[in-house]
Amino acid sequence: MMRRFAAGIVTAVTLLLLPACASSNSYMGIPLSYMGIPLFAGQVAPELQQLAARARAGDKQAQLDLGIAFEEGHGVEQDLGKARDLYRLAASDSGGPVWVYVPSVGNGTKGRVMQVDRGPKMSGLAEAKARLDLLARISE
Questions:
Q1: Which residue of 38, 110, 129, 131 lies most exposed, with the fewest beta carbons within 10 A?
Q2: Looking at the 3D structure of the chain, how many domains does it have?
């Protein structure tokens, strides 16, 4: 009787946790996909995989190229929402210093503002800005 109860508990927990594992975009903090493109070998063309990995890492040209692929449906299913998101990333300025508020740790100290360096300052790509404007006009 006790074995049957334990087996039932194990089955229930497995059924509850299995969908969460299957739908996850990461495993132990390691991303498995970017914009729906798998980042591990064998699922899609290696060129598309490399492009997605570079775009995820912040390469603005890769973000633009992947956005074009989603806009035009080259190697991926056409998705204007993903194209817009990628164009927005490629068009935005990034890097350089930012100011971050660090709250109190609860030992009587006050919170403070710290400067954090996000790497070299990079300007957004003009072509990405133009494509983003064009998509905005089309959707109006």
A1: 110
A2: 1
Please report whether residue 16 resides in a domain.
no
For residue 125, how many other CB atoms are within 10 A of its CB? 18
Asked if the structure places residue 86 within a domain, the reply is yes
Rounded distance, CA 87 to CA 64, Å? 6
pTM: 0.69
**Helix 126-138 vs helix 80-91: angle between axes, to the nearest 10 degrees?**
140
pLDDT in tens, the chain (140 residues): 555 544 555 454 444 444 444 445 667 777 789 999 998 878 889 999 999 999 999 999 999 999 999 999 999 999 999 999 999 999 999 888 989 999 988 888 889 999 999 888 889 999 999 999 999 998 77
49: Cβ contacts below 8 Å, ≥ 6 apart: 37, 38, 39, 40, 41, 43
* 68 in Cβ contact with 21 (< 8 Å): no
